[in-house]
Amino acid sequence: MTNEIIKPITARYFQNQKQAKEKLTMLTAYDYSTAKYIDECGIDSILVGDSVGMTVLGYDSTINVTIEDMLTFTKAVSRGVKRALVIADMPFLSYHVSKEQTILNAGKLIQAGAKAVKLEGASDFILDEIKHLTESGINVVGHLGFTPQYINTIGGYFVQGKSYENTLKLLEAAKKLEANGAFALVLEMVPEESAKYISENLNIPTIGIGAGRYCDGQVLVIDDIIGKYSSHVPKFVKQYANVKETMKDAISKYNKEVKNGFFPSPEYIFTLQEEERAKLENTVV
Ligand code: KIV
Question: Residue 1 — very low, low, confident or very high, per pLDDT cuts 50/70/90?
Answer without folding.
Answer: low
